[in-house]
Every structure is written in C-alpha cells, then in structure tokens.
Amino acid sequence: MKNYIKTVVALSLICAVIAVLLAVGNAVTAPIIKEKENEAVNQSLKVVMPEGEDFKQLDFADFDALLPASITEIYKEVSGGYVFKLSTAGYASNFIIMCGVGNDGKVTGATCISSAETLGYEHTYGEKLVGTDITTINSVDTMSGATKTTGAYKDAIKNALEAFRMLSSDGAEGEGA
C-alpha cells in the first residue's frame, strides 16, 4: 500500500511539473504566434488590395447572419473597399482565401493563404480573377486538372462579391454598372 501511494504521488508531481512547464511555454510563445499571424494577415491585405491604405477589421457578429458562411473575417479599407477572409473546401478542407474587392465592386486581388491542396494551382488562380465583378466572374474558367479546387476558389470569390454588394452603402456597387 505504501508503494502504491508513493507511485501516485510521484506521478502526480510529474504531471504537475509538466503542466506548469507547458503553461509557461504557452505564455511565452502565444504572443509571438499571434504577432506572426497578424503579420501574415497584414501582408495578405496588401497583396489582395495593393492600393489599400488603412484596414479596419469589422466586428463580424454585426453581419454574421447576413453573409455567406464561407466568410470568416471582414476588413474595411478607408476608400470603401473590403477584404474578405474566406474558408472553403476544394479537394481538401481548410482552404483559406483572402479576397479584396475595391469600392467599384471589382476584385482587386485574391490569394490562397492556407491550403491542404497538393496541386499548387490555388496559389496562382486568384490572378485570373482580378478585375472581375459579380456579373463577369462566371466567365473565368476553372483549371483543367484542378476543377474541384479552382471551382471552390471561384465560388468563394463569388461569396466575397455578394457580401460586398450586401455591405456597400447603396447596394448598387458591384453590379458591374
């Protein structure tokens, strides 16, 4: 019985020490990880809206019920454009895209920031969508050999364009007028 108690106490102490070490490690690395994530997002904002100057993240709860489910974050640019962070699934899940829509309702840029896809087409497909709007996006072809990936990409961009139309002040922006 005495050995049993010693074993339980020893294992409990080991677990407590490991838990403290993990908590300290998390406390040290969490701010660094958050900073790197913010840096990646800021770089993506400039990639998808190169002319953008001042981006403000909007409180997503204000729009959650109105917008397509693929939209996970919204950033408003000072001139009236928006950048949308989208999550969709192509061939694999966790396909994360950033899409900029200028105040004229046209795609200013789109880039894949995270993907489990293996083909690589998702990294350059956004270039084909620059300049399209809600009325012209269907004219951009999917890529042969990656139709599921590029189809999901294009659908996500359509969601961003539709969200822009919903969020724009007069509702007429993005109509291709």
Task: Considering the chains and any ligands shown, give keywords for the structure.
alpha+beta; five-stranded antiparallel beta sheet; 177 residues; 41% helix
Strand order of the largest sheet: 1-2-3-4-5
Question: What's the pLDDT, averaged over the residues?
Answer: 82
Estimate percent helicity: 40-55%
Low-pLDDT runs: 170-177
Task: Write the H/E string, N to C.
Answer: HEEEEEHH
Distance between the termini: 84 Å
User: How many helices does DSSP assign?
Assistant: 3
Which percent band covers the strand fraction? 15-25%
Largest sheet: 5 strands, antiparallel
Q: What value does the Rg take, in angstroms? A: 22 Å
Number of strands: 5
Q: Give the CA-based shape.
A: elongated
Protein structure class = alpha+beta
Tell me what the structure shows.
By secondary structure, the protein is α+β, with helices and mostly antiparallel strands. The protein has a five-stranded antiparallel β-sheet with strand order 1-2-3-4-5, sandwiched between helices. It has helices at residues 2-48, 125-129, 147-167, and strands at residues 55-57, 71-77, 82-88, 95-101, 107-114. Strand 3 (82-88) and strand 4 form a beta hairpin. The N and C termini lie far apart (84 Å).
Short structural summary:
With 177 residues, this protein is an alpha+beta fold. It contains 3 helices and 5 strands, in the order H-E-E-E-E-E-H-H. It has a 5-stranded antiparallel β-sheet with strand order 1-2-3-4-5, with helices on both faces.
What's the SSE blueprint?
Blueprint: H1 2-48, E1 55-57, E2 71-77, E3 82-88, E4 95-101, E5 107-114, H2 125-129, H3 147-167
